[in-house]
Amino acid sequence: MLCGDYVNHQDLELIRTRHIEGIPKLESLKIPEGSSDPDIKNNYTIPPVAAVSGLKGFVNLGSTCFMSCILQTFIHNPLVKYQFFNNDLHYFNCDSMQEYHSANPNVTENNACITCSIDVIFRNFYTSTSIEGYGMTNLLMTAWYKNKSLAGFEEQDAHELWQFLLNELHSDHERSLQRSSQHESEQNLCQCITHSTFSGTLASSIQCQNCQETTETVDPMIDLSLEIGRLKNKQKTANLYDCLDRFTSSEKLDVMYTCHHCGEKSEATKSLKIKKLAPVLSIQLKRFEHNKSNDGSSKVETPVSIPIYLDISKYTSDENTTNIYELFAVVCHVGLVNTGHYIVVVKDGEGRWLKFDDSVISLIAESEVSSMNGYLLFYISHKII
């Protein structure tokens, strides 16, 4: 046998064979009585079903439902999960990691790290034998240190928290990368969770009505924020495609436009198209409006039908390429603007739709998901499923 050859143990081969033949029952995965490897017999334990699926809720620590909902969309996102379980760059280049993974972590303003705190949550959800709700104390304290506006026990906006976490994940990646003296590959494209999973680009096109030429500007995009609008008299419900049509439709500019092609001032129209699609398409439905009259906010309760499969091709720069996305998570806000409650429904690896209401988990039908008053929608590209 040469150095570098692959060797497989007969007991492990037996386990592998059973998996190939079909998904076995838990008892069939027990190590055979006659196993000759003491390490296997003494250290191998069957992971509980709840741990394998990451099926666990969060204890509400005081208006923290907005946070638990966003975390569930991370925990059950296969791309985010993969990155956290293969994040050696951060694990070996962050001084805070050891502290967060200690038995009694001491989180302070100096060692607060969002990536470390979420990493601990992933470890707990996918390895713990307990099915009790998880208390996100360390993440809550870390968020308070990182963003003072999150401190306190008032309900926050789930979308703003999501953006905050993505910004922190990118910053933590940059910090780890700098310490490791590594460099990004693939034309310096950032490989952090935020950019490799959620980031795309949006093209803004302005067409001159004098020469008909178009000027295009491309900007980064991590989500689409779509107007819902009020329903018409005979319209009982809107559709997500209606919102996308409105977002990408041409609109006349209010001011005269100086064309970069002909140099003349003329009327112009502006339109938006998705230039580069992200592996995970994140959509915010604008359900909260600021009212200038009473200096407050109101909520748009217009029902929006949510397709399980979304064909986004029409709204991209290249309409000839088919781009299908599948829904896997919906965050909903229930109740009034300032005193409401967040819940989330997530599609797990077995195709079941699960409703997470803090620490309470229940099964729901797919037909219910489509008719929910969604606030944040998360779709994953069929090209990577």
Helix content range: 25-40%
User: Gyration radius, to the nearest Å?
Assistant: 24 Å
Kindly identify the CATH topology of the domain at 54-199: Cathepsin B, Chain A
- How much beta, percentage-wise? 15-25%
Distance between the termini: 39 Å
Total DSSP E strands: 18
Number of helices: 13
Shape: globular
Q: Any guess at the CATH architecture of the domain at 54-199?
A: Alpha-Beta Complex
Low-confidence stretches: 1-8, 19-35
CATH class type of the domain at 54-199: Alpha Beta
In CATH terms, the superfamily of the domain at 54-199 is Cysteine proteinases
SSE class: alpha+beta
Largest beta-sheet details: 8 strands, mixed
Mean pLDDT score: 84
List keywords for this structure.
13 helices, eight-stranded mixed β-sheet, disordered N terminus, Cathepsin B, Chain A, four-stranded antiparallel β-sheet, 385 residues
Please characterize this protein's 3D structure:
This protein is α+β, with helices and mostly antiparallel strands and 385 residues long. It has helices spanning 10-21, 38-43, 49-53, 65-75, 78-85, 88-91, 96-100, 114-127, 137-146, 158-180, 193-198, 240-248, 366-370; strands spanning 200-208, 214-221, 224-226, 238-239, 251-252, 257-258, 265-266, 268-276, 280-285, 288-291, 296-299, 304-305, 309-311, 324-334, 341-347, 353-357, 360-364, 374-381. Strands 3, 9, 13, 14, 15, 16, 17 and 18 form an eight-stranded mixed sheet that branches. It starts with 9 loop residues before the first helix and ends with a strand. Mean pLDDT is 84; it is low at 1-8 and 19-35.
